[in-house]
Design brief:
Elements (H helix, E strand, L loop, with lengths): L14 H11 L2 H4 L5 E2 L3 E2 H18 L4 H10 L17 H16 L4 H8 L13 H28 L1
Antiparallel strand pairs: 1-2
Helix pairs in contact: 1-4, 3-4, 3-7, 4-6, 4-7, 6-7
């Protein structure tokens, strides 16, 4: 079942959105994101799906490129390693993982310049490079919103089980 956090909608039945990302959702490497924990009790796949869906909805509302927003949202954290045990570099993982995500996405899929900017700069201002598109500013906000919602949902689930 494909659902975004805070949404009761089955995303595979939402044809307009699903049509933008169905090829990505069929890819084995994208599905591998299910193996990595993210934001306490979410998987990286679920987080990416959340960002993809809400990025799509917000960009559509703002009359921006919703298709590119959906695709970039699904691929923005497309790194296939456990960030907790990954080799540390002088720059933080938060600032560097977007380059790895873009490299991985570009190797597997045809990525537009707009999608590339959204993926590589979704952590702005940590990435330092100023986003070139309005959609990129949107994904930075949506990514943070989804992270907070995922952490809050995990905390609420834990408090209800006590």
């Amino acid at each position: 079942m494909l659902r975004a956090v805070l949404s009761k909608k089955e995303l595979s039945e939402y044809g307009e959105y699903y049509g933008c990302v169905s090829d990505l959702l069929d890819d084995k490497s994208v599905l591998m994101l299910r193996d990595f924990r993210h934001h306490i009790a979410t998987t990286r796949f679920q987080h990416s799906l959340n960002v993809s869906y809400y990025n799509y909805r917000l960009c559509k509302l703002l009359r921006l490129d919703a298709r590119a927003a959906a695709r970039a949202g699904l691929l923005h954290d497309f790194f296939l390693y456990n960030r907790k045990s990954h080799k540390k570099t002088e720059r933080s993982h938060a600032a560097e993982h977007s380059k790895t995500a873009l490299r991985n996405a570009s190797e597997r899929f045809s990525i537009s310049e707009l999608e590339s900017d959204m993926i590589v700069n979704h952590m702005w201002p940590m990435t330092k490079k100023l986003p070139r598109h309005r959609e990129t500013f949107v994904i930075t906000i949506v990514d943070k919103f989804c992270a907070v919602a995922e952490v809050a949902a995990a905390i609420l689930r834990r408090s209800k089980s006590k």
